[in-house]
Amino acid sequence: MDTHAVIASLPVAGADRAVLIDAANAAFERIIERIEPANEKLTRTLWDPEGYIDSEITADMLPISRDEAAYLVDVFLLHHVVHLAVAADNEVAESRP
Q1: How far apart are the C-alpha atoms of 62 and 93, rounded to whole Å?
Q2: pLDDT-derived band at 21, boundaries 50, 70, 90
């Protein structure tokens, strides 16, 4: 990206939010392809990019450059997606007799 945009307040809004959601969605797709969750469809329904952005970018990180925020969103998403896949697996297991 290499912009000079800075996120200085929460919630992240406007163009900053759109960029971060796009980055999160792109990373989510890469991760889903790599981990191949057993219950991919359900894992996808659990994915909430806006909620992820709202929880990942916190007040103690501000001010933060948009580029750095997008990087952090990307690198920390793996664990979140694995958690979603496990939650999907548990939901399927609980629904079985």
Answers
A1: 41
A2: very high
